[in-house]
TrEMBL record:
Protein's organism: Prosthecochloris aestuarii (strain DSM 271 / SK 413)
Keyword DNA-binding: yes
The family this protein is said to belong to: Belongs to the 'phage' integrase family.
Protein name (record): Integrase family protein
PROSITE patterns recorded: TYR_RECOMBINASE (PS51898)
InterPro entries: DNA_brk_join_enz, Integrase-like_cat_sf, Integrase_catalytic, Integrase_recombinase_N, SAM-like_dom, Tyrosine_recombinase_XerCD
Amino acid sequence: MRLTLKHRVLTSRARKGWHSIFIEIFEHGERRYQPLDMVANPADKAQYRQTVQFCKDLIARRQLEMKGLASGLVAQESDYAGGDFIAYCKQVADRSKNQKTRENWHDGIKSLERFCRHGLTFREVDHHWLESYQDFLMDAYSQNTARSYSTKIRQVISKAHKDGYLTDNPNKRVQQIPEKEGEIKYLYLEEVMLLHKTPHRHIERKTAFLFNCFVPVRPGDLANIKESNIRPDGAGGYEVYFRQSKKQRIESIPIAHQGMVYLEQARELARQRLGRELNANDKIFNIGCKKGFGGMLKVWATRAYDLYARKLEPEVRNHFSWACKDVSPHWARHAGATMLLNAGAQLDAVGDILGHRDKKTTMRYAKIHPRTKRTTIDDAVYQRVKMNHGLAKQ
């Protein structure tokens, strides 16, 4: 048997020019191929050399394995046990086509390198090591960040076990770090309307945020909405039809009447910015960098509170007093989900609009207003008392 390392040049849009590496196996006059699920960018010479060397080491170990089997020997542990686990993690990370996902992978790998400053072999990856690594993550990061990084490495461990690099899967013996449910923050409809009344020099950012309150896409998707993403919905209205950046799924969200008002304002601002009519590939919203957008929102909301808070009822005014200092771009999506739920929309419908597959996720985003809870309880109690005692509601 002869094993030869080969590659083919990728032509996909995301990885044009990259090399996909595989093994050519020539045995008994027949040629076959075995994929390695390894890709590398020749332009990144250091990473490319590391990937090729890793694949060469893999072939060498596999040849030793075949010789051992031919002579009747059985290895006591994986022939790859001495291999570089961190390098393997990087190869798995580089297979992701989505840039944001690759960045998340590499952030997780950086945490692994912090924990294993002198490297890590497959032989060292057992349940004792995994417990220690997760304890390190919990000490060094917030719980949800620790869970995110742990999830990435656990995925690599499962793949390594499946590929034969690990004889045992330590994931089965070590419990994953639990997710901590964070507080979902949002704005009341009254607060959104006060923002509408409050001027700010960043008109494009203001319009984008208000549109987002009524069309609850993720901020990253909002920034990428093009003229071609707006289309008729078949019922006399319009919808946003797009591929979401987080899960890469196709989504469509109907645009409410108030959302159309802000969409037309954003289109007009885009025409003024470009000095021409919009083409299909022109982006509609101009929100700039995330940090700048968030800072602008706080200034704008604080101004709205100073100008109009006295007109709000006490409960909303108290909420707005701290919300204006903490508001961020994500609050628009949360506000939209909350307004839909409090307007009587079904939970499944809200989840579909938000692009959620799990109802629990929708429940986290679409919180019921405290006053809605109170009104519901008051009405329920009143109905019970009325039935039993015939009392009139005061």
